[in-house]
Amino acid sequence: MLGEESNSLDGGYGWVVVVSAFVVMGLTAAVLKTFGLFFVEIQQHFDELASMTSWITSITIAIFHLGAPVASSLCVKYTHRVVVITGGVLAFSGMALGFLGLDMVWMYATTGFLQGLGISFSWIPAISIVSHYFSKKRALANAIASAGECAFAFTFGPFFQWLIGQYGWKGALLIIGGIQLNICVCGALMRPLKISCLPDSSCLDAQTRPGTQASGRANVKSPVTHKTFNWMLLRRLEFVLYAIFGILAAMSFFVPPLFLVPLSYSLGIDESWTASLLSVLALVDFAGRLLCGWYANLHLTRTVHLLAMTIALISTSLMLLPLASNYLSLAIFTGFYGFFFGTTVAIHITVLADVVGMSDFDSALGLFMLIRSTGGFLGPPLAGLIVDMAGDYRAGFYMAGATLILSAVILVILDQFQQRQEKENQSNTKSEKSVLPYPSLHVLKLQ
To answer: Which Pfam families match (predicted)?
Structure first.
């Protein structure tokens, strides 16, 4: 009886999985988002340029994306539980070894590579298993799970700043690594579903008689036979356009959290107030996700139109943010950026599903993240190089805003291409309807 309840969809033990995923999101994505607090500390300790220091975050982001297909494949071969626990150990190792702080290359290998791999092996399976446990309530479950990133980032800003003040940046890394070991606990709670209780099978063998369970399982097609990648997607222009958008967006998205703290320091803002900026960012990000997700479900606007609009608003916010001269103005512009960033995160995966269709969605998501990794890898160092050349952290925000404008242009081109395809499909459908009835009537008369 317990086994049947724990493996049912849209409730029961699934909510335990959602809470576990909520915590995993907080201990991975939120840590990455607030790592900018360590930027100045590490830069001053090693006496390096901003471009060299930013490679730590760049490597973390790139490995996070590049590890996505590997994590997905391991989930198929083993279980989500095993992969998440492995990710927790890797994330802890990256922070704990970074505590030694031997040199910049050491930081690249530990808080960069190992941390990125740990985040990938934790984040990807956590999102995936929630979708397996929920069918009708999948959107709600995913929204709750993803909100962990915002909830933890809201508290991590001032908490990490306090840790750095009390124990130094090295001691703070070690403590954060210890906290990330809780990912392993969350992974242990992610109980694998039986094949018969996956969304496409309607829990058949939980309802069949003991003597017929084998035949019930035989009729269920296991999803583990799906391909990790459908490389033929690269021949579809609409997917290629969206992948280009992903690269340009990733080049920009990770720049503001990285340089927001150094910019506030350059304006003479107190450290305690600086940490609160990250909390403001997380709070409005959460509000933007909920509001945009609710509006998108009304289907009043094409999702690609909505995404293009939010991207344009983000770029505008980034262009205005460097105009801030004190804490209040910086907090206001940061709030605008965070809100519109949240709206983008809420729908960009939905747009991908609209572009490729649900039959190719799993393959498209892994391939999209793999391609997008190049943008996350190049964005922060490029912004750091521009900052070094200009001698001003504002230059990084201008670079991010300009890149997002280009990504919005790509979305407009994608929308035009989709509309043209839809018109062609409609015209073909009309022509088929005008031809098909006649043979059908002829057959009926013969009968």
So the answer is: ATG22 (PF11700), MFS_1 (PF07690)
